[in-house]
From TrEMBL:
It comes from Anopheles farauti. InterPro entries: Cdc37, Cdc37_C, Cdc37_Hsp90-bd, Cdc37_Hsp90-bd_sf, Cdc37_N_dom. This is Hsp90 co-chaperone Cdc37. It is found in: Cytoplasm. Residues 254-285 form a coiled coil. Residues 283-375 form the Cdc37 C-terminal domain.
Length: 395
């Protein structure tokens, strides 16, 4: 059962139960209050004096014991002094105990019935900051994010690698500058990079930290407070949350990971297309045609000629085609670089552009080696070999 007896003995200065009609009530109240305040001040002075005497006696006793251990001065006098100080210390302890009992028996009043637990002043500037961010242009926001990442990238990655809720809470409280919109933006970019590198487990972990930060920012927007003030409340709630709230949180993480996978796949596909386009541009012939596309558009017999590098067979195949079609295929081969009309001139131009050491090495090898003009085909590639002694006429 609850003991309510302590509430029976409360001193109230403006209690009118025992006030005589002929006595000035306001004056009586003021006198009672003044007397109580003076009595409390006197008790506080006695308490402070007792504390000072206790501290002084303890210091003297410590000093005397140290001298006795070092054998300094008169040992008998020191022992006698120590005994007296110990007795004095015991006397003050008893006096302090009596003072506490007396203080405990005193009735409560308006000044002693309660004490403030804590005092805190919070100046909320989040609305001003949010307004300033909204007024920034896209270019300025991008520049601010780059500066933020450049300055705090190491701390952002450390936060992304944390696994326990308590560690994440402490890290954000110690590094409160990370509690902003730029942190989840960076973590999203990092997740996409990890997924593109096929580091799926690490991506899933960083995604969890990203959603935690996003939840903190969403709570701050709903409550219209600084997001730094929502860090402790979020981690406390997520650790003690009901099954429904946790399931919603985990579902949000899974949906986010699915979006990351989709975005990573799109970026990979775009990179592949860009690389293929660069390769296509790099292999364009003098006429601006792609040799791979031209090769695939040739009749099957002509394709075999290029694959086997048989010039005689190529001349025969061209002769079998109608003149107009043969000229069209031949011109396309020339424009794509599959066919070089004057191989000797091309080889001579190539030789002039080479270094002197290469020229000497070629001269030593002799003139019997054929001149190779390589053109990449489909997968294995197609090469055209032109012998110095052979001439090709255009049909």
């Amino acid at each position: 059962m609850v003991d309510y007896s302590k509430w029976k003995n409360i001193e109230i200065s403006d209690d009118e139960d025992d006030t005589h009609p002929n006595i000035d009530t306001p004056s009586l109240f003021r006198w009672r209050h003044q007397a109580r305040v003076e009595r409390m001040q006197e008790q506080e002075k006695q308490k402070e004096t007792l504390e000072k005497q206790k501290k002084t006696t303890a210091e003297k006793l410590k000093e005397a014991k140290e001298k006795l251990q070092r054998n300094e001065g008169n040992l008998d006098a020191l022992k006698k002094s120590i005994d007296e100080l110990e007795k004095e210390q015991e006397r003050m302890r008893q006096e302090e105990e009596e003072f506490r009992k007396k203080e405990k028996l005193q009735p409560w009043n308006v000044d002693t019935i309660s004490k403030p637990g804590f005092a805190k002043t919070v100046i909320n500037k989040s609305a001003i900051n949010r307004k300033d961010d909204d007024e920034l242009s896209d270019e300025q926001r991008e520049m601010n994010m780059r500066d933020f990442i450049k300055k705090y990238e190491k701390q952002l990655k450390e936060f992304g690698m944390l696994r326990k809720y308590d560690d994440s809470k402490k890290y954000l409280q110690d590094n409160h500058h990370l509690v902003c919109e730029d942190t989840p933006n960076y973590l999203v970019i990092w997740c996409i990079e990890l997924e593109m590198q096929e580091k799926h487990e690490l991506m899933a972990h960083v995604a969890h930290q990203c959603i935690c930060m996003q939840y903190i920012l969403d709570i701050s927007k709903q409550l219209k407070v600084d997001p730094r003030a929502c860090v402790a409340s979020f981690f406390q709630r997520i650790q003690q949350a009901e099954a429904e709230y946790k399931n919603q949180f985990l579902g949000e993480i899974e949906a986010f990971k699915e979006r990351i996978r989709k975005r990573a796949q799109e970026k990979l596909q775009k990179l592949i297309e860009e690389q293929e386009e660069e390769e296509r541009k790099a292999r364009l012939g003098p006429g601006g045609l792609d040799p791979v596309e031209v090769f695939e558009s040739l009749p099957e017999e002509l394709q075999k000629c290029f694959e086997t590098r048989d010039i005689g067979m190529l001349q025969e195949a061209m002769a079998k085609l109608p003149p107009e079609e043969a000229r069209r295929h031949l011109q396309r081969c020339i424009d794509s670089g599959l066919w070089v009309p004057d191989a000797k001139s091309a080889a001579a131009a190539t030789g002039e552009a080479s270094e002197e050491g290469d020229e000497k090495e070629t001269a030593e090898e002799g003139e019997e080696d054929p001149i190779y003009i390589e053109v990449k085909g489909k997968s294995e590639g197609a090469k055209t070999v032109v012998e110095p002694s052979e001439q090709v006429e255009q049909k």
